[in-house]
Protein: Signal peptidase I
Amino acid sequence: MSEKTGTLMDGVVETVKTIVYALLIAGVFRTLFFQPFWIPSGSMKDTLLIGDFLFVNKMAYGYSSVSCPFSMCPIDGRLFGDEPERGDVVVFRHPTNGQDFIKRVVGLPGDTIQMRSGILYINGSPAPQVPDGTFVETYERQGPAGRTPVCLEPRVRFGDDCTKDRFIETLPDGTQHAVLDAGPSRVDNTGVFRVPEGHFFFMGDNRDNSTDSRVQPPSGVGLVPYENLIGRADRVIFSSAGRSLLFVWTWRGDRFFKAIE
Structure:
């Protein structure tokens, strides 16, 4: 083999080694520290919008089998785990269909949860809601699934304004966040849910357009085991109003590094 050929082969080997090392480092980083997540649906409006891009803090609650891609971590239970606090926005693995969801923790182990006329009751006491204006968006197909938003208006055409009432909800520990209401819905009134040990109750902030713990699987989420929590969402890194994060001209300038409350 000539010296030129040997040099070329050495270069190829070094390139392959660099790629392998980079993939290993990225895999370790994603498994142990932060996982990228893109918001595909409107269930957490207006806290999170379709097209928001964020990193999920995987150190917040420790590690379980779902911490690795494809649930490949050989972990039984949870390691180095802290439980989420009420009001945390969390990415978790759906208990039955394996998809990753993002919702807000409203029920902790031992709590009772109920919805009455659109008001959240925790351990028999209402979480107060104070009116905070109106959330307005365009009635159009949104996100990769192309779904249309739920509106207060009984009849709305494509291109029209779609409105929802906005409220600030206060949880028992005093934390506050915005919720949206689009009028009466089938999940505005529920029975009493008792959250067992090792499970959590999740709801979307866009209350009338969220698949969450108010409905049992497969059509809903039901109660989520602790082992299914992936991490806490703390901050939006950037956001795109277009169909792709690569369309930089559609990025929302007011959402760069926006804290999630």
The chain is about 10% helix and 30% strand. The helical segments are 3-32. The chain has a mean pLDDT of 87. Residues 33-259 form a domain with the Umud Fragment, subunit A fold (CATH 2.10.109.10).
